[in-house]
Structures are given as structure tokens and as C-alpha cells.
Specification:
CATH architecture of the largest domain: Roll
Shape: globular
CATH class of the largest domain: Alpha Beta
Number of helices: 3
CATH topology of the largest domain: 2,3-Dihydroxybiphenyl 1,2-Dioxygenase, domain 1
Largest sheet: 4 strands, mixed
Strand content: 25-35%
Amino acid sequence: MGTITGIAHTAITTKDMDKSLDFYTRTLGFKKAFEIRNPETGGPWINYIYIGNEQFIELFYGGTKDNPWSEELRGFNHLCLRVDDIHSAVERIQKEGGAIADGPKQGGDNNWQAWISDPDGVRIELMQIGEKSPQRKAIQEYK
């Protein structure tokens, strides 16, 4: 009772909702689940993208200022999406017009990773859990 069971969603404010919806649905292959209208104005407010396992990406309208990532900034760093086959995922994303910034390559934690960015510059890591990674061991231990 009262136990946290997972991450329900991550929220991103977008500059151009159409571009963001295209990226998350067509390029990454997720589904737009639903939209919530602003209760005060009745206008558009939030789009929910279903990514699986009861998890969503929440896209807000209205972003007007860039928030470029930098290593020295504190706070949010990147979104990591787990994939079952890093090479196939990269190939599919490239086929849909997505640009791979780095990878695929094996990281220091024995996982495979590749890096992309969404239309608003949110850094996204694609990660395939390696057989000898500490994440795999922890997943098995805490199941």
C-alpha cells in the first residue's frame, strides 16, 4: 500500500506540437493515446503518447524558450528508452528520417546505447540492456 510502482510519465513542453507528435509517433513508433483540453479555455493543452508498460510521454503545448542541454547544468539530463535490439531500433528510426547523434556503441555499463534528440532538443538515449550489465543483474534481483 502506498508503494511507488513505476514511472507513469515524463512531461515535455513543445514548441511545435505537430513536429513533436510526428517524432514520437512516426519516427519512434509510439501511439498517441489521448488529448486533454485546457479546462479553463477549452483549447489544446496536453497530448499523451503511450510508450508501453503503462508509461506515457506527456507533451504540453506552448513552449517559447529554448532550454539547451549542457553537462554543467543540474536537473534533467536525458530520457532513456529501453529497446530490445539497438541496431534494429536505430535502423528503423533512420528509415523514418530520424538522425542518430551517436552510436550504437557499448557503454561502460555493458549496455548498448544510441543517442537522438526530439524536435525540442530533448536528448534521448536508446538502450539495449546488456547480458552482463549491472542493470540486468538489478532487474533480476528485484523481480
